[in-house]
Every structure is written in C-alpha cells, then in structure tokens.
Amino acid sequence: MVETTKEPTLIFMFGATGDLASRKLYPALYEIYKKGNEFAVIGLARRQHTHESYRSMVDRALPQGADRRKEFLDRFYYQPLDITEPENFARLKNISDQIDTQYQLNGNRMFYLSLAPRFFGVAARNLKKAGLTETSGWKRLIIEKPFGHNLESAEKLNHDLLEVFDEAEIYRIDHYLGKEMVQNIEALRFANPIFESVWNHRSIANVQITLSETLGVGDRASYYDQTGALLDMVQNHIMQLLTLTAMEPPSRFEPEDIRQEKVKVLKSIRPMSSDAITNQIVRAQYKQGVMPDGTRIGGYHDENNIDSDSDTETFVAARLFIDNYRWTGVPFYIRTGKRLAAKSTEIVIQFKDIPNNPYLYEFNHIGPNLLVIHIQPDEGLSLKLNVKEFGEEGETVPIAMNFSNNVKRQADTHTPDAYERLLSDCLRGDSTNFTRWDEVAFSWSLTDSIVAAWKDIPLDYYEAGTMGPASSDRLLALDGFCWWPLTRME
Ligand code: NAP
After folding, report:
1. For residue 16, which atom of ligand 1 is closest to its CA?
2. Mean pLDDT value of segment 150-175
3. Which of 9, 54, 271, 356 could join 49 via S-S bond, C-beta 3.0 to 4.6 A?
4. Separation of CA 239 and ligand 1 centre (Å)
5. Whether residue 159 lies in the annotated active site
6. Would the pTM of this model clear 0.90, i.e. be above it?
C-alpha cells in the first residue's frame, strides 16, 4: 500500500556539488519543503565546504522567493566524503544520528546517489558497512540512470544493491516518468472510454514515438560517445513511453499492478532478428548541416572530445511489434536523435481509415484521425478529425482539437517539475513512477539484442537540421505509412 503521510526524513545527498543536484534536486526539495514535508539534508561530495558555504551554494540554486527560505536552508548540513573510503562513512554515521535526533526524524532515511554509475555499488556497500542502513525507520535508495550498460552489468549492479537494500527500497529514476503528460497517458487511456474501446489492433494503424533534440552532445561528449542514442534514450525513456501507451489496464492503481502490466508489454516485444535487421532498425550519425534557424552546424566528428573515427550513433529509428492480442500486427515506430530539425517529444496514435470510405475518393483533403500526445516542450493533446468545411461546397477538411497545458504553465500557477514529483513520491513510498528491476532487465534484453544484431549493418548518416536519414522514412514506407510532421500547439 502507498503511504500517504509526509514522514520526517533524513536525506543523504551524494553528489551534492554536482550539476544535477544544483539544477534539479535543490529546487525540487525547496518546493516539497514549502508543501509541508519535514526533512533535513546532509550534502556529501569530496569538495571542501562548511555547512554555511554549502547552504550558500544551495541558496544560489533556488529560484527567487523568500517563502520559508531561511528555515529550509538551515536544514542543510555538509560533510566532505570520498565514496571509495569506508572510514568517511563511519564519521557520517555520527553526524546522521545527531541530526536524526535533533529533528526527530524517526530513523527514516533516503539515500540519493546523484553520482557517476560506477559509484552506485561501492556507495551501497560502504553505507551498510558503516551501519547507516540499520535504522529504526524506513530506508530508501534513489539511483540515477544509467542502470548498467547492458544486461550483464545491470545484473551485477542489481546484485550489489540487493546485498544492502530490498527491491521495494530501490527507486530507479527515469525522470520521464515524472513528466506531466507522461503521467497523463494513463488518465487519458483509462479514464476515457471513447479511447479505451478503440485502443487496439482493430482501430489503430500504427503508433509513432519521437524524442528529438536540436542540441548536440555539448559537454557530455565523452559519456555520449561511449553510450550512443540507443542506450541513452531508447533503453529507458522511449521504452517507458511505449509501455505506458501499450499496457493493459491494471486491475488496481497500485504501484505493483501498474508495473506488472508494463513488464508484460516489454516481454511481448518481438525480438530483433539479424536476418531482417535492416527492416527493423536504423542507426545513423549526423554530419554537417543547417538548422532551421539558419545556424550552420558541424558534424558529430567536429564536436569537442569526439574521435574522428567514432561510429557512435546519434540517431536511432526502429519498427517494433508487440506480439499480444491487443497489438497484433500494429507497428510501433520509435525514433530519437540529436541535431534534428525540432526539439520535441510526442506520441502519435494513427487510427485506421474507415473501410471503403467514399470520402477518400471524393475529397482530397481528408487525413487519418490522429491523437497526438505532446510531452515536451508543448504539453497537451491534439485530436485530428475531418469535418465538413463551412459553406456550400461542403468539402471535407482536417481540423485539430487541442488541449494545452502551455498557457497554464506560463501563468503563475506552479506546475511541479519531474524531479519534484519523483522526490515527493519517494518520500511517500510510492514507487509507481520508478522502474522495477524486471522492467530494467527486459529493456536491456531488447537493447542487447539490437546491439548484437546491428554490428554488421553500416552506420547511416543524416544532415544536421533534418529529421534523420531517408532510411528512417523507409522503415515506415514498408507498411505504407510515413512519419507525421511534428507540430507545435497554438
Ligand atoms: P557531476 O556534475 O559530474 O557531479 C558528480 C558529483 O559526484 C559531484 O558532486 C562530485 O563532487 C561527486 N563525486 C565524484 N567523485 C566522487 C567520489 N569519489 N566521492 C564522492 N563524491 C564524488 O554529475 P551530474 O551531472 O550531477 O550527474 C550525477 C548523476 O545523475 C549521474 O549518474 C548522471 O548520469 C545522472 N544524471 C544527470 C543529469 C543531469 O542533467 N546532470 C540528468 C540525468 C541523469 P566532488 O567532485 O566534489 O567529489
């Protein structure tokens, strides 16, 4: 059962001086604190800080506003610590016990590992060795992606974590699961009978999931060059979007019931076969080109810290099938890439045409019914329909019915950021929007099979500022479809 009470908690912020902590985690904690959550924070990293200089650092990371700011900052403490040195953890035990008593935190502990993944295992081991995980309250571990770099390394990491934490205590973050419109997919599907009754192979022609970026690799070059688009985006974010779109309704809205249905989808994805790989997947890298705003962009090899012979993919498109009753024969097309023409994450559901539709032959302007779920930067829904144009001629024209959160976001109301939702969920013990081990494992099995199968296919190329290579369009043309252009909501 999900606990709904706001229990006082001691938060251990590993990687306290890092980019993620400053950009996302401190602002998120501030919002959560203002909503009445009781906690204290111990910041941990190698750099030297006093409690005061750490509080100033956290202060600089917060948005404008004075509401309870000083009392929030006073709850932050700092201890220099090297993850690899167990004796540092013994000192940490003393200060944690003191803070626990001072704020009456009842032994509840949240360990946030905002660290490079190579430190996850050793951090858990050292926490246990120092007795920090033996506590009178609950303990929870939050870890950032990536969770391993293939199934084997993920299994090893999971094994190390399970020596210290139970599966139910491990919260694996995929920040996409905290996004407003990703959380809305379930509501859209399961609270609207008009959609649920047509959400299957009888009515849906195909599903298109796009996660496109205009940016290049920036200062993540060395990480990205070892990772590539498949592991950086498909194994986690795109698989989450796909499972939420395709899953069966859970019998109850409990975390385990929902996650169970998502796992069933992952299990049903048809494995890649090396024979037909060119009909299933495209991997490509950008070369120089011109972005839509006229900016000239060099190729991937021109980026700082990228080897001139790197064959890392910056674009992946795939044609997947889910072999279950609901989705039999329906292609799910996915694509993601860098230096593409537009920044957008969206899901397009294309509905089947009416059989022998006289309108198709009489009028040219008819288009298929599309439901577009805009995830970012726009947040909302568009439903594309065909209606008779006003007037005597009575031609049919496509129109879009839009529901947009954009205006709400621009207004004064505070819409929680993904990290705020997820931290808040973890403090309440709600694991729905975190990935369970079997989800991670099935997702790695699929990406491992892709990596094994595509070794022999040549890397394709696309110009920066386009929507990827022509081979990506050919994947859909095999089934008589095309990618729908990304649209901005008005
Ligand atoms: P970062 O800016 O490089 O920060 C890393 C942190 O780890 C620093 O606070 C660093 O502090 C600390 N650290 C490094 N070695 C240490 C050691 N031996 N002992 C103790 N602390 C050590 O990285 P980040 O961007 O914040 O990312 C953190 C995690 O979040 C990574 O797993 C990343 O993949 C994930 N992530 C980040 C983002 C993002 O937007 N930044 C987004 C999604 C996921 P000292 O140098 O002071 O020790």
Report:
1. 9
2. 96
3. 54
4. 25
5. no
6. yes
